[in-house]
Amino acid sequence: MREFLKTKGFKMTPQRELIFRSFFELTDHVSVDELYIKVRKKDSSIGYSTVWRNLKLICKVGLAEEVNVGDGITRYDHITKVPHGHLFCINCKKLIEFNVEQIIAILAQTASDKNFAPESFKIEIQGYCEECSKDNKSDSNGFSQKQQKLN
Ligand SMILES: [Zn+2]
Ligand SMILES: [Zn+2]
């Protein structure tokens, strides 16, 4: 990691190393707050803005990318992972991942049909997770209204 950063023109400081390591120890979709809490447990002298700046740096060097689902919280995905889509529950804010291998093939074909060179893609479905839609079903009125919206 130290060498990698050097090739990108950045220095690895002990603080930075701690923040980077903490980020990769956390599982998917890390928010700045989550990372901050984790970093503070190891070194309480590190401030919020330092954590935020280093998270931006992790993105800049291509090891993470921002995931925005429109709830005002920016989360960060490890980019070393295989491409995946997101199912976002608008009720409990849960982010579930799914395999997009087949979808990517279709997207790539679509792009090449239009002589378009794709750089990135985003596959996201917003709705209600299993638990939250169970809650919705008990309120039969709300559920049928939602169904109508879909049609
Ligand atoms: Zn993800
Ligand atoms: Zn939910």
What's the gist of this structure?
With 151 residues, the protein is α+β, with helices and mostly antiparallel strands. The protein has helices spanning 2-7, 14-25, 32-42, 48-60, 101-113, 130-138, 140-150; strands spanning 30-31, 64-68, 74-78, 84-89, 95-99, 124-127.
CATH class of the largest domain, named Mainly Alpha
Bound molecules: zinc ion
Element-level helix/strand string: HHEHHEEEEHEHH
Mean pLDDT across the residues is 84
End-to-end distance, in Å?
50 Å
Instruction: Label the structural class.
Output: alpha+beta
Form type: flat
Radius of gyration: 19 Å
Main sheet makeup: 3 strands, antiparallel
What is the percentage of strand-forming residues? 15-25%
Which second-level CATH architecture of the largest domain applies? Orthogonal Bundle
CATH homologous superfamily of the largest domain - what is it?
Answer: Winged helix-like DNA-binding domain superfamily/Winged helix DNA-binding domain
Q: What is the tally of beta strands?
A: 6
Task: Give helix % range.
Answer: 40-55%
Number of helices: 7
Question: Uncertain spans, ≥5 residues at pLDDT below 50?
Answer: 140-148
Counted up, domains total 2
Which fold name is given in CATH as the topology of the largest domain? Answer: Arc Repressor Mutant, subunit A
- Strand arrangement, largest sheet? 1-3-2
